[in-house]
Amino acid sequence: MNGKIQGAASARISPFDRGFLYGDGPFETLRVRDGTPVMLREHLSRLKKSATELSINTTSLKGIEEVISKLIKANGFSSKEFSIRITLTRGPGGSAQLPPPIRKQFPTLLITLSEINTAKLNKLRASGVSVVTVEGSLPLPSGIKSLSYLNSVMLKSEAERRGAYEALATIKGKIFEGSSTNVFILKGKTLYTPPPLLILPGITRGVIIKVAEKMEVKVIERNFKAEDIKRSDAAFITNSVIGMLPIKSIDKKNIFTNKAASAFEDLYSKLL
Questions:
Q1: Element (H or E) spanning 263, and its range?
Q2: Per residue in 25-73, pLDDT tens?
Q3: Could you read off the pLDDT of 117-142 as tens digits, one per residue?
Q4: Domain total for the chain?
Q5: CATH number of the domain that 70 lies in?
Q6: Same domain, yes or no, for 111 and 138?
Q7: Is residue 1 one of the residues assigned to a domain?
Q8: pLDDT tens-place string over residues 163-172
Q9: Domain that holds residue 64
Q10: Could you please report the per-residue DSSP string of 132-152?
Q11: Are residues 147 and 219 in the same domain?
Q12: What angle do CA 234, 28, 140 make, to 5 degrees?
């Protein structure tokens, strides 16, 4: 925390921290493989961009790569797969919702590690996952991975309630994104994914688009509906921790997906 490596039990955050009180700040979650953070530069770039858009002091992010490296070694996770969460809050201060100016901010930077259950992920990758659609629930503001994550929490809870792995937010039936995932469908030699407007365009989403270009697959950023997923050749969800997971059913309707998505996954793995 704030550049100091310490046990979770001894870590302390001010009760007046704006991240705790208002969800005031951005965060990033990424995967670590063989001791190396995957796409770290891209994640840190988005974190800094989000902080800048929110007018949060980014001084504490200087030297963060070295801190992350030391934290990985201190936890002895160099041979395991795990996720890193980087949380940056505006810190304490300000008057109610009105934040303090940048020069008077004392941000909180918290970096935590969690081991990934790779066995479970591999089973899901082999079997596919079920998803459900939820009308009228989108996380805002778009483009910023904000600590204000209540909509995503509610989406994931709805997925759990309905016996699914993930919930996809829709507006008038058009699919935008999952609680923590981006979604793709493949039809022939064309890959479709919702446009960046009103979604968080994930780092892995960007990698998949590059994969498509290498495979000479056309990419169209366009919203689609549940029926389009059912009629697709392949459908899958992505984020930085799960990578790619194929969709096997939507709203309890099984769908046929061929093995076309496996080519994306193979090339995606090679690019990491």
A1: helix 260-271
A2: 999 999 998 889 999 999 999 999 999 999 999 999 999 999 999 998 8
A3: 999 998 998 889 999 999 976 655 56
A4: 2
A5: 3.30.470.10
A6: no
A7: no
A8: 999 999 999 9
A9: 8-116
A10: EEEET---SSTTS-BS--HHH
A11: yes
A12: 75
Mind listing the pLDDT tens digit for each residue in 1-29? 888 888 888 888 999 999 999 999 999 99
Other C-beta atoms lying within 10 Å of the C-beta of residue 107: 24
CATH of the domain at 226: 3.20.10.10
Whether pTM exceeds 0.85: yes
Structural domain ending residue among the three candidates 48, 83, 116: 116
Judgement on whether residues 47 and 169 belong to the same structural domain of the protein: no
Provide the residue type at 202 as one letter.
Answer: G
Q: How far apart are CA 217 and CA 224, in angstroms?
A: 18
Cα–Cα distance for residue pair 272/102, rounded to 1 Å = 36
Using alpha carbons, list the distances in angstroms from residue 228 to 58, 92, 136, 173, 255: 42, 47, 19, 11, 10
Say whether both 141 and 243 belong to one domain.
yes
Q: Which amino acid is at 54?
A: L
**Secondary structure class of 77 (helix, strand, coil):** coil
